[in-house]
Amino acid sequence: MSWLSRVLCLTLLVAAVLPSLADAAPQRHPPLGAADQAEVKAAEDYLNGITTLKARFLQISDNGAQAEGSAYLNRPGKLRLQYDPPSPLLVVADGTFLIVHDKTLDNPSYIPLGSTPAGVLVRDHVALDKGDLMVTKVSRQPGLISITVVEAEDVASGSISLIFSERPFQLKQWRVVDGQGQTTAVSLYEITTGIALDHTLFEFENPNFGRPKL
Question: Which of 117, 128, 155, 200 has its CA 20 to 30 A from that of 76?
Fold first, then answer.
């Protein structure tokens, strides 16, 4: 499963099953212009400059389902998405795995962190248009910049757009479009960076005390 397929597991957690996506040959975009390159670099510098982040989030999918919660980030390697009740979901990146836990089910799912979009955001160095990632579009609206990224070797799996405010320059939303054209948007608000976070936020105790389910 590609990382774009896995992002759907995270942002479409209200869905029961992911659609299968057709393979396609990689399609390189024309070289980005100087203005677009500057926007991509600003986004990379912002993401690489974050050590810790805390925010509230609102997740909305095409079918109208909504979920809210709190997001915590501690780079490199650590992430927590704490969904508000009545949602039973919890997502934790502990530096090795991305763990998705539905409290109504018996077994948490463990996904190698490096193969997920969360892994991209918490890796030591974020590069949006290099290696396994490719920027296909940079667009601007008043006060906002959107950067659309695909997996270079699996463009048919969909795209993720990172939306930044200009003043201050902050990540405000990410928007996932899957291979079937279904969109899920996650908006961030009440964003605070550079704060001390309890290390236990990024620890997960398997309720079954079993080995990770790979």
Answer: 155
